[in-house]
Design goal:
five-stranded antiparallel beta sheet, Arc Repressor Mutant, subunit A, alpha+beta, four-stranded mixed beta sheet, Beta-Lactamase
Length: 442
């Protein structure tokens, strides 16, 4: 199969594929192994479903009904683009005896519309508004899995984890907040085997992108006076934008603002001292002097004291990456990650945050197994020696170039400390100072 995200390759017999998938599903539920030709995206979803304790004979639970459902839907951001969804997909769903469904970021169905007969049939498995169809609740299914992996997904017949859903086929794509990149939910088309076609996957993806564009137009513009933004990834000295004014910060001021932006409740002087300085001999007077200079630099009363805190919400690129990671938007997190947080900083709290952010992102990349995302990390300055990522990339993209680079990284990291490879031409080792030859590792 050329595209692992498409359920059926051209020319495949859907009836025979259903038989094969049912046998594979039984093998997995009985032995825990996934035989071919189950797609990798489905195999990984089955494993996640099993780890979440989903029962193959289970069913969805309806969590929101009547007034609660109506109030929740009215306040949800995707309510603003429901007219667009109906315009683009409503006729297709009704004429094709399909269903148009929209779920929130937790996999709860908010709207299920389409052909009346199909809706009644879907209702027997609780594919109804208010029901939770997250992957952790009902296993592999297009809307729940699309939210879980933050990618357009097709799920064909017996690829569904729960048996009573296996007569159905669906395709879904996540919809993001255009301002923050956060996953808001997913748009889904559900029906028969005819949806197991590349066109249905491309269709829902195009509708999701159209919805994101409309959300961007509907969002009220932020004024410069409302905006306080901190950029600290991939740079030793952060930049703050406040009231339309750009402020270049020293390394110490960068560290202070990064920490205060993460603690809106504020930090005491002692807490800041411990967070900023490894040397316990640094006195509170030194810290107060730095804060006085920072307050003068910021102006406009942004920095308050007792405890030290920022008087306005600050949107940082660190928070954007964390938020996207937390919602499973790995591609969005990679897009926002411009490099390690204040890479030259040795402030203990900043070092911990830098490591946690990088480790969380690389762990998510390795788990996702997306060759393009892995390649982006491996070829970035901070990932070029990341052995685990190169191994993961070689597993999903075993080209000669990738294997060769993996061999280099393994050899370099297995070499004794201080050893350098010979210079080209056999003129002996390349003597370089330790300081210049070392690379910062995450």
């Amino acid at each position: 199969m050329t595209d692992p995200w498409v359920a059926l390759e051209p020319g495949a017999d859907p009836v025979e594929r259903v038989r094969t998938l049912r046998r594979a599903h039984e093998t997995f539920t009985e032995a825990g192994t996934v035989p071919r030709p189950v797609r990798s995206v489905v195999a990984e979803s089955w494993r996640r479903s099993a780890r979440a304790g989903v029962a193959p004979d289970g069913t969805a639970t309806v969590e929101l009904t009547d007034g609660d459902l109506g109030s929740y839907r009215a306040e949800h951001p995707l309510a603003a683009v429901m007219p667009l969804f109906r315009e683009l997909m409503g006729t297709f769903a009704a004429d094709g005896k399909h269903l148009l469904a929209v779920c929130d970021e937790q996999g709860r169905l908010l709207w299920v519309e389409g052909h009346p007969t199909t809706r009644r049939q879907a209702g027997r498995m609780n594919f109804v508004p208010g029901a939770r169809w997250s992957e952790t609740a009902v296993g592999t299914n297009a809307p729940g899995t699309a939210v879980a992996v933050d990618r357009p997904v097709q799920v064909f017949a017996a690829e569904h984890f729960i048996r009573r859903v296996q007569p159905w086929t669906c395709a879904a794509a996540p919809v993001h907040d255009p301002r923050t990149g956060r996953v808001l939910g997913a748009i889904d088309i559900t029906g028969g085997d005819g949806l197991a076609h590349p066109h249905s996957l491309g269709f829902v993806q195009a509708v999701a992108r159209a919805a994101e564009s409309q959300l961007a137009l509907l969002a009220p513009p932020r004024t410069a006076a409302d905006t306080v933004e901190l950029t600290a990834l991939g740079r030793d000295e952060a930049q703050l934008v406040a009231g339309g004014r750009k402020v270049a910060l020293s390394r110490r001021h960068s560290e202070i603002l990064v920490l205060l932006s993460r603690h809106p409740e504020g930090l005491t002087g002692d807490e800041l001292l411990c967070a900023l300085y490894e040397d316990e001999s640094v006195t509170p007077v030194t810290l107060r002097a730095e804060l006085t200079r920072l307050r003068r630099l910021l102006d406009s009363g942004l920095l308050a004291s007792r405890p030290y805190r920022l008087t306005a919400p600050v949107e940082s690129d660190v928070a954007v990456v964390e938020r996207r990671l937390g919602s499973g938007a790995i591609t969005g997190a990679m897009t926002a990650y411009a490099g390690p947080l204040l890479p030259g900083s040795v402030a203990p709290a900043v070092v911990r945050l830098r490591r946690r952010l990088a480790d969380g992102l690389r762990t998510a990349l390795i788990a996702r197994r997306d060759p393009d995302l892995l390649a982006d990390w491996a070829r970035a300055p901070w990932g070029e020696d990341d052995l685990d990522v190169w191994r993961a990339l070689a597993a999903v993209r075993p080209t000669a170039a990738v294997r060769a680079r993996l061999d280099e990284v393994e050899s370099e990291q297995a070499a004794p400390a201080g050893w350098m490879p010979p210079r080209p031409g056999g003129r002996g080792p390349a003597h370089t100072s330790a300081t210049s030859s070392q690379r910062t590792r995450l």
